[in-house]
Amino acid sequence: MIKAITFDLDDTLWDIWPVVVRAERLLHDWLAERYPRIADRFTPLELRDLAVDVIAARPEIAHDRTRLRKEALRLAARWSGYAEFDVEGAFAVFFAARNAVELFEDVRPTLERLARRYPLASLSNGNADVRLIGLDDVFAFSLNAIDVGSAKPEPLMFEAARRRLGMRPAEIVHVGDDPDHDVRGGREAGFRTVWVNRIHREWPGGARADAEIGNLAELEEVLAEWESRSA
Ligand SMILES: [Mg+2]
């Protein structure tokens, strides 16, 4: 019996890469005005890649994409010769644009219908803000790797959601696009899993999800079938 549904966010409810690329460009424009030596020295992509150096130096913050971005910006400022740098201002530019996502068409209607029947929650490794995105009305709660201190596929986020829902793992369905983070992680936590494959990818190998869907509307059919089998 299914009693609750958890959802991944990025690439499950919206396309994230065009949004990140735009956010990085806006941040770069902002830097070019206020800290031109940073913008001259680093392209938007090179600024993103600085996170790799940050992770190498500070693996304990690898799960925290907000801190990674801020530390990478601090590093860029230092290497560009700025002793003073408004890291919060810079991050705010990125963060506002990062949350200006466009939901896939099927997302809001499906989530609204499902929210009348099940508690829904979001479980994300990213730093999306569901309130800024305007989805806080459909989710009972939202967890991310920053709050939990650990990213999917590690079991901690799933376990935190399960405890908060007060259910057994087999009563919860996790829905997401990432074969490893969402499908393997969810399965290893004991959840039922649904792989959202919007772009017709080949399954990369390993145990498959309990169901595969090409869009969120198909989730309702999957749930109906599982419910008819358990009835
Ligand atoms: Mg995802």
Structure, explained:
The chain is of the alpha/beta class. It folds into two domains: 4-15 and 103-230, Rossmann fold (3-Layer(aba) Sandwich); 17-98, Four Helix Bundle (Hemerythrin (Met), subunit A), CATH 1.20.120.1600. It is built from eleven helices and six strands. The chain has helices at 17-34, 36-41, 44-57, 65-79, 87-98, 107-115, 130-133, 145-148, 156-165, 179-188, 217-230; strands spanning 4-7, 120-124, 141-144, 172-176, 192-196, 211-213. A six-stranded parallel β-sheet has the order 3-2-1-4-5-6, sandwiched between helices. The longest helix has 18 residues, at 17-34. The model has no long low-confidence stretch (mean pLDDT 97). The chain binds magnesium ion (MG). Residues 8, 10-12, 176-178 line the site of magnesium ion.
The first-level CATH class of the largest domain is given as Alpha Beta
Q: Between the first and last Cα atoms, what is the distance in angstroms?
A: 8 Å
Radius of gyration: 19 Å
User: How many strand units?
Assistant: 6
Helices and strands, with pairings:
Elements: E1 4-7, H1 17-34, H2 36-41, H3 44-57, H4 65-79, H5 87-98, H6 107-115, E2 120-124, H7 130-133, E3 141-144, H8 145-148, H9 156-165, E4 172-176, H10 179-188, E5 192-196, E6 211-213, H11 217-230
Parallel strand pairs: 1-2, 1-4, 2-3, 4-5, 5-6
Helix pairs in contact: 1-3, 1-5, 3-4, 4-5
This protein binds magnesium ion.
In short:
The chain is an alpha/beta fold and 231 residues long.
Describe the structure using short key phrases.
Four Helix Bundle (Hemerythrin (Met), subunit A), 231 residues, 2 domains, elongated, six-stranded parallel beta sheet, 6 strands, Rossmann fold, binds magnesium ion, alpha/beta
